[in-house]
Amino acid sequence: MKTKSTLLGLVLWMALGCVIGNAQEKEEKEKPVFITMTTLHRSMDVKAKDWKASEQEYFDKVTSKNDLIIGSEILTHYYTDDNTEIILVNIYKTWEDIEKAGTVSDELIKKAWPDEKARTAFFEKYDKFYTPVHSDEIYQSITSVGRKEYKDETKKPMIVYIRKSQMDMSGKGKGVKEFNEKITFKNPYLKAYYPYRHSWGSNSTDFNEAFFYDSLADLEKSNEKIEELIKLTWPNEKDADAFFDELEKSFTGKHSDYIYRNIPSLSK
Description:
By secondary structure, the protein is an alpha+beta fold.
């Protein structure tokens, strides 16, 4: 039987620590967390409401009760090149917790479905929601360039824009932290921002950023606001050119864009 914990064994994400009250806790918060992402593909033969009901049952009985999973999201296609994409994202404090969490999930599964026949029936139904094809990536959060954590609770799905850039890897270039402090974090339309980079997967140059917005309209307004903030921050065109020339040395210039939606009831 193929359980969901098996699918999540090498699985995006985005909670980066907890509120702290002393120096020791602050030091712990600044340590990078590990973000696992599994990209699955939904079967076109099943109903969305049935899929969500099964994911909700699993989340309520397993993911939400697994303390080693400190954050979790399920992202669904909105504007990407594949409308079957379902991305399962989990966040862990340490690399070791990824494997340990799988063991905890297995125990929670047996507790949630103590009857073997009922357990088998649930996961046989669950497996039918997805095709056999999936991919796995593990990322590490980047603490040095800053982040903006989402603090409000909402029952409305959020827009999650992911920009995947490629690092130059030459060691040249600087300015990402400065840009975030002066521009990104002053953008009123941006609800949350999480940067993360490759740790285990297909491309060692990956530098990814997840931007959370209330709506697609706010994402567009955000772009206009960024241009406005740039002009206010660097009113002298030569200063602006000098800053961005240096910033761009950090990257190859190649990037890709993806827009997803999350499901609040499946968010941890």
